[in-house]
Write a structure and sequence with these properties.
It is a single chain. The chain has 136 residues and is mainly alpha-helical. Helices cover 71% and strands 0% of the residues. The chain is built from six helices and no strands. The chain has helices at residues 2-13, 17-51, 56-72, 78-87, 110-125, 130-135. It starts with a helix and ends with a helix. The model has no long low-confidence stretch (mean pLDDT 88).
Amino acid sequence: QLVEALQSKALLVGTDLRAVWGGLEAGRLEWLNACARCHEIKELIRDALVSGGGEEGDRSDGLMVWKYCLALNVPMLKAACKAWAEKVKMEKHLEPLKGYKADLWDPRLPEWQAIECGVTDAADRGGAILQEAWES
């Protein structure tokens, strides 16, 4: 009865609830897929930071690598990932740590902003908070 009443109200205001729910579900699935595919590298980076006593710069670098990995798994960020890989002279775009050049990974660069905003949006669409996902 509740769903029926909700659908009736949606019709009154001209809202397509199936489309809204479908979009929310798609965003959640996309986010969960990206997180699952990047879980191993997130754990690898976090473990290295703990065991190596990483400094603040190391932590932000590690977070950037993880965000790049997330972006690789968000279809709409494919072009942004390609641009970033070229900017930082990545040897293999699917292996960001291979030949990693920390001095090139500058979060102030416009190419990075596309990744940063893109993964933040993906987290939002998935009903998550990016920083909490990193910490979990």
